Amino acid sequence: MKDKRPMWSTPPEVFPFIAQYAEDSYFMDLGCGQGKIMDAMRGIASRVVGIDDSPKPMYPGKLIGDFTKDYSQEIVSADVLYMWSGNPELRLAQMVENGQNINGVLLIGAHGKREVEFLYSSSATFVEIEEIPFKEGKDYPGGKFYVGVMLGL
Question: What distances in angstroms separate CA 121 from CA 21, 115, 134, one per listed residue?
Answer without folding.
Answer: 23, 10, 23
